[in-house]
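Aim 2 progress update. The chain analyzed this quarter is reproduced below.
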Amino acid sequence: MDIQSIKAELVKGILQTNSKELLDKLYSTFKAESKGVDFWNELSDEQKSEIEIGLNQIKNGESIELEEFLKKVS
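Predicted structure tokens:
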């Protein structure tokens, strides 16, 4: 998906949602980005730990392709 398509989908999603929680998260993300804040520093220790676990699993070959995952959960 090119950048213009991504922007269009984001705008569409923002206009259609009624989730204040989602809008607050998006707003915080955009605000941090405009300030040059590294999102990593905004994450909780638990979130950082979960990301690190996932990255280690990928490095160790403990991952599956998206299509395979979708077959398992459908």
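DSSP finds four helices and no strands in the chain. The mean pLDDT is 89. These observations will guide the mutagenesis experiments scheduled for the next reporting period.
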